[in-house]
Specification:
Layout lengths: L8 H24 L19 H4 L7 H18 L4 H22 L9 H18 L2 H14 L15 H18 L8
Helix pairs in contact: 1-3, 3-5, 4-5, 4-7, 5-6, 5-7
Length: about 190
């Protein structure tokens, strides 16, 4: 268990902004290279594509895809940092790595790119961890996220062929598992 540490709002804003700026810069470079980086996504069960697990979250299929991910990424990063910086790092990393690995094993044979798998992981963590934490502030964050972004759950269904529902589904599942692992602060009494 990890003790929760306070992250000031100014620091949370800086981290969320910098994360979004990184994916914006990568997409700008990608646009100038004719989408060259997209081939570094996850191509399931292709050994040469294992490195895509690291790169895929930072790659997008275009400006529309990028901008559809920016706002939830920014909001969820801010909110997850309320749980502490180490929790954010663990949840973000686990969702990217384990979610990506699950996509590599079980996804459709197509390139899977984008931050949405991580976003679904952050969403899953935020919704579940607030209940597990038994802390009023985190519980309220869970309720707010569930209410405001509950429609994300439709994204785990295979409704649009061009959308990696696998990334959404596996990201969500990893985020929920991380909530059960990290959700409660050991320094707080139940």
């Amino acid at each position: 268990m990890i003790k929760r540490t306070y992250v000031p709002l100014s620091k949370r804003l800086k981290i969320a902004t910098n994360l979004c700026l990184v994916i914006i810069v990568v997409e700008i470079i990608n646009q100038f290279t004719g989408g060259f980086f997209r081939s570094f996504g996850i191509l399931p069960r292709n050994i040469n594509s294992l490195s895509g697990i690291l790169f895929a979250p930072f790659l997008h299929g275009g400006i529309v895809h990028l901008f559809s991910n920016l706002m939830p990424l920014f909001v969820f990063t801010l909110l997850l940092l309320s749980h502490g910086r180490r929790r954010f790092i663990y949840v973000f990393s686990a969702t990217a790595l384990f979610g990506g690995l699950l996509v590599w094993f079980f996804g459709r044979s197509a390139y899977h790119i984008g931050m949405s798998g991580v976003i679904y992981g952050l969403f899953g963590y935020l919704v579940v961890a607030g209940f597990i934490s038994r802390e009023f502030k985190l519980f309220m964050i869970s309720c707010l996220v569930a209410f405001a972004y509950g429609g994300l759950l439709y994204g785990v269904l295979p409704t649009i062929p061009q959308v990696s529902f696998e990334s959404h589904l596996f990201g969500l599942l990893v985020g929920i598992v991380m909530a059960f692992i990290l959700g409660r602060d050991p320094s707080r009494k139940a």
